[in-house]
Amino acid sequence: MKLSRHQWIVFAAAWLGWGFDVFDAMLFNFVASNCIPTLLGLTLGSTAAREATVYWTGILSAVLLVGWAAGGVIFGWVADRYGRRVGLMLTILVYALGTTLCAFATSIEQLALFRALTSLGIGGEWAVGAALVAESVPEQHRVEAGALLQTASPLGIMLASLVNYQIAGVWLADDPANSWRYVFLCGLAPVFLALAVRIFVKESDRWRAQAASGQTAAALQLSRLFDPDLRGATRAALLVSLTALLTWWAVNAFVPLLGSLLASDAATAAGLPTDEARQMSEAWKARASNAFNVGGLIGALLAIPLAKRLGRRPAFIGYFLWSAASILLAFGLPLDPELRLAMLFVVGLGVYGVFSALVFYLPELFPTRLRGLASGFCYNIGRILAAFGPFVVGALTARAGGSSAAITDTLVWVALFPFVAALLARKWVIETRGRALPD
Question: Who contacts 419 (Cβ-Cβ below 8 Å, separation ≥6)?
Answer without folding.
Answer: 320, 321, 324
